[in-house]
From TrEMBL:
It comes from the Bacteria. This is EAL domain-containing protein. It comes from Methylopila jiangsuensis. Residues 24-277 form the EAL domain.
Length: 291
């Protein structure tokens, strides 16, 4: 019964969690345990090159498979990790896991660039770049298989520091993406001083682009800006064919969203890609046979 479950777990699972110091403390303890106990995992969401339809990348998204509370989404536990000093351990786990996965897939001939989210707090660490490069070396991962996603607001909070951390990563071939672009009220002039390769247009704009003229203008303007800067673009949260066609027509490089695939476990992503290749081969064989 609800009573047997206890008031704590009710609060823990409820929306009031963030205001509830006791529930928060309990989550903190469970999260600390979860990292050590291997309860965290990564799911991967493909990024499709719009011109070719090919999946050239995937974003790694953290999930917490809690033994009794089920799958907990990152919006619920990343902020807790950030506040209680666990984000370094979590960030290390995420980068290590993604790097090993990218290296393992590359070994199978499946070269897929994996995008990894970086928290503002991780980026603030003066040893961020050095630590990240050491993790890639240990995982035997080609740095060009890794893209680091920094949110626009984290990048701009201290742009000089961010630029200093990102430059050596980029020099080794790591790609840098600006995540959730359009939500951070950036000064565009200072943004251009940052070294980066990709802009990810926030899902909110992509969702509204077909209905709201303002969102449509933002998407078109950002895609135009990216073209002028010579950087690639990812449209986040593409859910419909109309959205795909709209961003593709405005020159967007990649699409990511439920239209193509939800985030899935590593094995499912590999199976999904295998099925695609088999279908492609069948089509080619069919076409050849028909001649
Ligand atoms: P994000 O980096 O902007 O990731 C994109 C989010 O949009 C993901 O939510 C993804 O599942 C969701 N999404 C993708 N396509 C669609 C779509 O077509 N429709 C809808 N409605 N949603 C879509 P998720 O996995 O819940 O992650 C939420 C946020 O948590 C991420 O936003 C990121 O800021 C943070 N996060 C996730 N994993 C990590 C991590 O390993 N480290 C850090 N620091 N943050 C992470
Ligand atoms: Mg992201
Ligand atoms: Mg994003
Ligand atoms: Mg987002």
């Amino acid at each position: 019964s609800a009573r047997a479950a206890g008031p704590l777990s009710v609060r823990w699972a409820g929306a009031a969690l963030n205001d509830d110091a006791y529930g928060r403390l309990r989550m903190e303890q469970e999260l600390r345990h979860a990292i050590a106990a291997g309860e965290l995992e990564l799911h991967y969401q493909p990024q499709i090159e719009l011109a070719s339809g090919k999946p050239l990348g995937a974003e790694a998204l953290a999930r917490w498979r809690h033994p009794t509370r089920g799958m907990i989404p990152p919006d619920r536990f990343i902020p807790v990790a950030e506040e209680c000093g666990l984000v370094e351990a979590l960030g290390r786990f995420v980068l290590e896991t993604a790097a090993r996965q990218a290296a393992a897939w590359a070994g199978l001939g499946f070269r897929l660039r994996i995008a990894v989210n970086v928290s503002a707090i991780q980026l603030r660490n003066p040893a961020f770049a050095e630590t990240a490069l050491a993790i890639l070396r240990e995982a035997d991962c080609d740095p060009s298989l890794i893209e680091l996603e920094i949110t626009e607001s984290a990048a701009m909070a201290d742009a000089d520091h961010a630029a200093r951390q990102l430059a050596p990563l980029r020099a080794q071939g790591v790609r840098i993406a600006i995540d959730d672009f359009g939500t951070g009220y950036s000064n565009l002039a200072s943004l251009t001083q940052l070294p980066f390769d990709v802009i990810k247009i926030d899902r909110g704009f992509v969702r509204d682009a077909l209905e709201h003229p303002n969102a449509r203008m933002v998407v078109a303007a950002v895609l135009g800006l990216a073209g002028n800067l010579g950087v690639e673009t990812v449209a986040e949260g593409v859910e419909t064919e109309e959205q795909r066609a709209f961003v593709a027509a405005h020159g967007c490089t990649y699409g990511q969203g439920y239209l193509f695939s939800r985030p899935v476990p590593a094995e499912s992503l590999l199976a999904w890609r295998r099925n695609q290749l088999v279908a492609e081969l069948r089509r080619m064989a069919g076409a050849a046979g028909g001649r």
